[in-house]
Specification:
Helix content: 25-40%
Low-confidence stretches: none
Strand content: 15-25%
Order of helices and strands: EEEHEEHEHHHEHEHEEHHHHEE
Mean pLDDT: 90
Strand order of the largest sheet: 6-7-8-3-9-10-12-11
Structural class: alpha/beta
Shape: globular
Number of strands: 12
Radius of gyration: 21 Å
């Protein structure tokens, strides 16, 4: 992929949640280290897939990028502006360039609002804040255009969410995300709650919209086939940190990090002959508790290649090939 300007840059992102104990939960006991130092960037017009086991911090990372959670530390640079340092009014203005498609289409739509009101809500908010100037007729026209673009009839605009199927509700969520003409769309497992037959339709819709509107995606999923299909580059996450980043084709062809290798070995291959010959990598040990601060490699307890220095310090992401980074001492030059 040609070198383009980075639309989003995340540096040293941390999201630590305090937890309490005691009779009245008034004593801070420690922290849950949900995200513990994430570095990534997304070029304009590309799709970065973020993949990993459930509970590894993918959705927390997305919500911290969107500033739905206030990060404990780190910077989130969108079009050169650090979102973590912006006052509320400027942050609202910056959100026009960044919208979210949520995972559950049954929970992310207000059941008391019509489809027209759901899609028009972002436009109303920004018009009221003085960041846009749209009349009701202009909003209605935009709503109808978006509905037809995502595959819904404009004549359904007065229906309520419960009158739609899951796939149709997710199309409404996509239309809402596009209402403000954003540059970046954050997708939090947007097809995981849908039937397999509908997933492919929604994924193709995402691709068509990206080509038509020049969108940039940060796409979270735990389904490796989905990530491979939709992504230009893939970041593999484990226990709150990125352990490998690579072009999609390169990662599936030559995974380097032991965790990535185990993750990909668990994904079924449609060719029975290949599936019978390949060897599944079974991880041993338990997933470490996220309330324990790590002093060494986060994957140390489950890695069959671990060395003494893996327990002493955390390996950082390093280039091992053009566009391919891995955080593992197996591929770092000897000190």
């Amino acid at each position: 992929m040609e070198n383009k300007e980075n639309l989003l840059e995340v540096r040293g992102l941390k999201m630590h949640f305090p937890f309490h104990s005691g009779m009245f939960w008034n004593r801070k006991k420690g922290f849950i280290y949900a995200v513990d130092g994430v570095d990534l960037s997304i070029k304009k017009g590309e799709t970065l897939g973020l993949v990993g086991e459930s509970g590894c911090g993918k959705s927390t990372t997305l919500r911290a990028v969107a500033q739905l959670y206030k990060p404990t530390a780190g910077k989130v640079m969108l079009k050169g502006k650090d979102l973590t340092a912006l006052p509320p009014a400027e942050l609202l203005a910056a959100r026009k360039d960044m919208q979210i498609v949520f995972q559950d289409p049954y929970a992310s739509l207000n059941p008391r609002m019509t489809t027209r009101d759901v899609i028009a809500e972002p436009m109303r908010i920004f018009t009221k804040a003085g960041l846009m100037s749209l009349s009701r007729n202009e909003m209605d026209e935009r709503v109808e255009q978006l509905m037809e673009r995502v595959g819904l009839s404009r004549y359904f605009k007065n229906r309520y969410p419960h009158e739609f199927s899951g796939g149709q509700r997710q199309r409404i969520g996509i239309a809402r995300a596009l209402a403000l003409k954003p540059d970046l769309v954050l997708c939090d497992e947007p097809v995981s709650a849908l039937d397999v037959s509908i997933q492919s339709q929604i994924l193709n819709l995402f691709k068509d919209l990206q080509e038509e509107f020049g969108l940039t995606y940060m796409f979270i999923a735990h389904d490796l086939a989905v990530i491979q299909y939709i992504s230009n580059r893939i970041a593999v996450m484990y226990l709150g940190v990125i352990v490998e980043i690579s072009d999609s084709a390169e990662l599936y062809k030559k995974p380097l990090h032991p965790y990535t290798q185990a993750l990909l070995s668990a994904a079924p291959i449609p060719d029975p002959a290949v599936e019978r010959k390949r060897q599944r990598i079974i991880l041993t040990g338990d997933v470490p508790s996220p309330d324990r601060k790590r002093t060494g490699c986060y994957f140390y307890d489950r890695c069959s290649h671990r060395m003494d220095k893996c327990k002493e310090s955390v390996p950082v992401l390093r280039d091992v090939a053009p566009g391919h980074q891995v955080a593992c001492y197996l591929y770092h030059d000897p000190a």
